[in-house]
Specification:
Strand content: under 5%
Number of domains: 2
Strand order of the largest sheet: 1-2
Oligomer: single chain
GO molecular function, one term: metal ion binding
Distance between the termini: 63 Å
Number of strands: 2
Domain Cytochrome c: 82-172
Structural class: mainly alpha
CATH topology of the largest domain: Cytochrome Bc1 Complex, Chain D, domain 2
Order of helices and strands: HHHHHEEHH
CATH class of the largest domain: Mainly Alpha
Low-confidence stretches: 57-61
CATH superfamily of the largest domain: Cytochrome c-like domain
Keywords: Heme, Iron, Metal-binding
Length: 173
Amino acid sequence: MGALSCAISERPMNSPFTRRSGGDFNNGCTSDETHKDHSMTSLRTLTLAALCALAATSISHAADTTAAQQLAHWSAQAGSPGNADKGKVFFNARHGGEWSCASCHGTPPTAQGKHASTGKSIAPLAPAFNPKAFTDTAKVDKWFRRNCNDVVSRECTAVEKADVLAYLNALKP
């Protein structure tokens, strides 16, 4: 409390004297103590603000959407509602390659799947069987882009994404 009270309580009283004397005498209050206290307070405030912003960002990205919102988004992009029957056909088709969506996610995609080449386990894709499915927009975009390239050798269209999401959202326990 000494340096802080010195800086706050005696500054107004000593400021005229400090200006005239060049700061050599300050009733025990050095300008370094005053600046150090203000710098520490500013640093603490800045650090706390940065941590709060980081926490808020992490929380908002953890569950920034729902499967229904993703379906609505891609349906709007497509200009028509997703069709679950077409989505099921798309999901299970090989599209001229050796893989389909079902190759890794299973048929139906309600249980844990397994990557066709790496063997890595994959959580159930249907939202009713995996509450985390389609809750992170960045991950949804990333996995659609990556998996569509693997299955159809291009990025899926908005219509295809809406249809697949309609199919996945229709799967219930």
